[in-house]
Amino acid sequence: MAKRLLRLVLNGRPQDGVAADNMLLLDYLREVLALTGTKTGCDGGECGACTVLIDDKPVLSCLTLAVTCAGKRVDTVEALADDGRLSAIQRGFHEKLGAQCGACTPGFLMASEGLLRRNPDPSEDEIRDALGSNICRCTGYVKIIEAVRHAADLLKQQETAA
To answer: Looking at the domain covering 88-161, what would its CATH class be?
Structure first.
């Protein structure tokens, strides 16, 4: 299989690597770059556990070829914390108990982060819509929605304080 040079901005830093034409972004992140925060779930684009942000938009990395990310900005769950401090969305999930077993959590965090980057004050319906491609088998989603709303409030507080 042919391989290509892959230049992108990964978690805020320029990244050069090589990827086979048929390598999925999920596999590139986990196997080549050892970024294992992005989870393998269904391998078919149905669960959302592998969600990452490409140019701020949530994308399923199990359905995305790595080489299509050339020249783009890719953010994984590893990018959320800043100097060991939890991001607003991570705090929201922690403080409102949005994480259960944790298998789906990275995908929910990234889908939520993408939503809050586009819309810092989403309604409950907008949250539900943004998280519609993510599946949690442990909860009824109430705590997850509360976590995203709390994160939006935390972001507002940060803006007011700045």
So the answer is: mainly alpha
> Largest alpha-carbon pair distance within the chain?
53
Q: Which residues contact 107 (CB under 8 A, 6 or more apart)?
A: 39, 41, 47, 48, 49, 50, 51, 134
Q: Angle 37-43-47 (CA atoms, 0-180°, nearest 5)?
A: 75
pTM given for the model:
0.95
**Helix (H) or strand (E) run with residue 7 in it:** strand 3-10
Residue 1 identity: M
- Measure the N-to-C terminal CA separation of the chain; round to a whole number of Å: 51
| Model pLDDT for residues 46-76, shown as the tens digit of each residue | 999 999 999 999 999 999 999 999 999 999 9
Give the start-to-end residue ranges of the domains of the chain.
Answer: 3-79, 88-161
Helices 142-161 & 88-95 angle (0-180, nearest 10): 130
Cβ-proximal residues to 159 (8 Å cutoff; 6+ apart), any chain: none
Task: Burial-class residue 6 by CB neighbours within 10 Å (0-12, 13-18, 19+).
Answer: buried
